[in-house]
Amino acid sequence: MKKLLNLICFLTIGIASFAQDPDASQLHETAKQFMRGGDWTNAVLVLNKALAKDPQNISIQKDIALTYYYQRDFAKARETVKPLVEREDADVPTYQIAGNIYKALAERKDAEKMYKKALKKYPNSGPLYAEYGELLWMMNENFTSIEQWELGIKSDPGYAGNYYFAARYYYFTTDKVWALVYGEIFVNMESYTSRTAEVKNLLLDSYKKFFVIDPKAKPAKQDNDFTKAFTAVMNQNSSVINSGITTESLTMLRTRFLLDWNKDYAAKFPFRLFDHQKQLLQEGMFEAYNQWIFEAAGDLAKYESWTKLNTEQYNEFTRFQKSKLFKVPAGQYYKSTN
Prior knowledge:
Serine Threonine Protein Phosphatase 5, Tetratricopeptide repeat; 18 helices; Tetratricopeptide repeat protein
């Protein structure tokens, strides 16, 4: 009899728990699961249920706007996000969502106005500079776009996106120093994405063009002391690439560059990228590093062959590359420093 009573109590409690109305946070979590699975219709349905329980919750509202965006219902997405960017508690992701919605609707002037407001509120946000610069690029305001990416690099040096856009910009000018520097910083920050492969190709091609002035390229701005030093050290070691740019000749060029740079300029221009290269050189991984960047970009089959012939070296470098966090510290910005 006692067992029967216990069983009845257990079932009663279980049914009551099952029937209990979920709160806003529980509904929001359920909606996020639908979002992760790409079930946008169910996500909107549950998010609206959650919002009814907590009408001022900006996180729920952001997810509603984002879900409409992914559904390509841009009008509803704009209707949802527009009041959010006016709120005091609007954060960087709120402005990012709004920017994507405005860009999808080709409402670029509204987007520009919104980014300017956002950057007044968050003047050190790398993502906002990156996306505002991208918008300006879409509006064919190329020189203004690079100003935003440079501000992003200076203000938030740990964010990869501005290095990506800036490297691509400088690639199409005569300013190959910064295509090389920013491109290599980027592949160390974001090492295994489709953008990484793109920038590796850019780096290889930039080295091929570094010693040649392209008459069709846009002129570079005035050189500064860092740029002059970088160019001088490259030029004084350029004899090693007289027979062409290959991974082997680049490894030799960059090794000599590092030795001379550390002797003559490292104290004046402390730089995370060159410190990273120096560490790889000292620990016997610099060849693998250069193979990973340049051979993988130039001849993937040859790179795969190298990895098989140098398995231990490849594995050691891969472990290191995947375990380290590459971050440029504040104060190492030399683009506009004389």
